[in-house]
């Protein structure tokens, strides 16, 4: 079965990655492990996308987005991130 390019799921995952970075999820002890797992999933999604395995790319991008959002939330909850990170929550 042919699957269309997962442009939106990939874009949403990339945006979630940027938001998690702004929140300091990569350096926060409470969210660093989740952030790294999410980054690994996003890298795998990019690889599958390049190989034109769009079904797997879509699945991995969705998993990555959910993990990145979790990492962002944990980082913001524990007070990490930039001073502008609070404006992301409001």
At a glance:
The protein has four helices and no strands. It has 90 residues and is mostly helical.
Set out the fold topology.
Blueprint: H1 7-23, H2 32-50, H3 54-77, H4 85-89
Helix pairs in contact: 1-2, 1-3, 2-3
Which features would summarize this protein structure in a list?
72% helix; single chain; elongated; 90 residues; mainly alpha; 4 helices
Task: Provide the β-strand percentage band.
Answer: under 5%
Biggest sheet architecture: none
The tally of beta strands, per DSSP, is: 0
Instruction: Please give the count of helices.
Output: 4
Give an overview in words.
This protein is mostly helical. Helices cover 72% and strands 0% of the residues. It has four helices and no strands. It has helices at 7-23, 32-50, 54-77, 85-89.
């Amino acid at each position: 079965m042919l699957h269309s390019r997962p442009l939106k799921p990939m874009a949403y995952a990339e945006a979630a990655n940027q938001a998690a970075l702004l929140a300091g999820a990569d350096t926060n002890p409470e969210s660093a492990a989740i952030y790294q797992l999410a980054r690994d999933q996003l890298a795998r999604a990019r690889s599958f996308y390049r190989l034109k395995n769009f079904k797997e790319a879509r699945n991995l991008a969705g998993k990555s987005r959910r993990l990145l959002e979790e990492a962002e939330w944990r980082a913001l909850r524990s007070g990490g991130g930039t001073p502008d990170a609070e404006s992301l929550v409001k």
